[in-house]
Amino acid sequence: MTLFNKRTLTLLVMILTLALSMILSSTSYAHPLAPALIKIDVQPEGRVKILWKESIAKTANVNLFPVFPQGCNKLNEPRVSNVDSGMLYEWEMLCMESWVGEKIVIQGLSEIDATVLVDYGDVGGQRTSVLLTRHQSGFIIPENVTILKTIKGYTYSGVVHLLSGWDHLLFVFGVFVLLYQQSRRMLLAVTAFTVGHSTSLVFIGLDLAPALGVWIEILIALSITFLALEILNVNTRNFVFGIKDHPYGLTAFFGLIHGCGFALVLKEMLSNTSDKLLPLISFNVGIELGQCIMLVFFMGISILLRKLSRLSGNKVWYQTLYKRVERRAMPFWGYSLGIMSMYWVAVRSVDIF
């Protein structure tokens, strides 16, 4: 009698999958609905206007707040008002010395997985934006805002936004898992997804279509659930939605939904910017770069595993093990993606009600 029979192993895998999925979904972030925001407007004669929007939902009981360079004094106490997603604080400062080259730090950001949007405007009225994360919790004040700095800032923000959001990453990963044996179809499906989210990003970014807010975040989570169902049925060929057999139209449709999520952050970044086209293109390029980074990573692992399989030669035990692991991997990924996505659906639904 063996210590672990097939049924016992299956049960253990399901328990481990559930535990891992709940840990990851509760301790990692999908894209926040409304990141914290600080707007800085430099005025003549050393005056600086500050607007700080803080999300009501605190993480790990850490209060975020901006720390400014020394030599600045408040001209008035902050005016406090309620907004839909948090509290808004506005005040003015008088700075005796220039801020150029100085660093503004968001205290507490390095302790949690959150993002803070910095919107900076210089004396000449030129603006730039950047997303701060726990890995980069400070912003160095530039001497002036040039076109190149604007492109770099928005491109970097696009990369950060993509790589810091598990929901978009998991969708791309789900497409990869579903189609990894068909490289051409997989790349075309990801391309269709790219076309879809780029289209909705442009339309919403240029105010040609409305942003759907929290509702779109629920649909994004559900798109991962659909992929999970397809992955769970890949061995039986009983596909629920036909994403594997007809990937292009469906991934393009889901791309439109995910693009609406990208646009939520972009609209906030462009709220004080009259020329939106260049930042919009730069932000979208950043998202594509982030997506390419993850796709190359996934494909690299897949190629490595295939090469290991070939190097094993005629070793029957290795080939048998490889095929068994490959077959068992589909249910593992399917259940993992499904549990995490449904957790996000529940959390985001609570935010509405």
Walk me through this protein's architecture.
- This protein has 353 residues and is an alpha+beta fold.
- The chain folds into 2 domains: 6-30 and 164-352, no CATH class; 36-145, no CATH class.
- Helices cover 54% and strands 16% of the residues.
- The chain is built from 8 helices and 10 strands.
- The protein has helices spanning 6-27, 147-163, 166-179, 183-205, 214-232, 247-269, 277-311, 316-352; strands at residues 36-42, 47-55, 65-67, 72-74, 79-83, 86-95, 103-107, 116-121, 127-132, 138-140.
- Strands 1, 2, 4, 5, 6, 8 and 9 form a 7-stranded mixed β-sheet that branches. Strands 3-7-10 form a 3-stranded antiparallel β-sheet, with no helix packed on it.
- A hairpin with a 4-residue loop joins strand 1 and strand 2.
- The protein is elongated.
- The model is unreliable at 1-13 and 25-29 (pLDDT under 50).
Number of helices: 8
Q: Judging from the principal axes of the Cα atoms, what is the shape?
A: elongated
Q: Segments where pLDDT lies below 50 for 5+ residues? A: 1-13, 25-29
In total, how many beta strands? 10
> Helical amount among residues, as a percent range?
40-55%
Fraction in beta strands: 15-25%
Compute the separation of the termini in Å.
53 Å
* Sheet with most strands: 7 strands, mixed
| Overall SS class | alpha+beta
H/E element order: HEEEEEEEEEEHHHHHHH
- Computed CA radius of gyration, to the nearest angstrom: 23 Å
Domains (count):
2
Arithmetic mean of pLDDT: 77
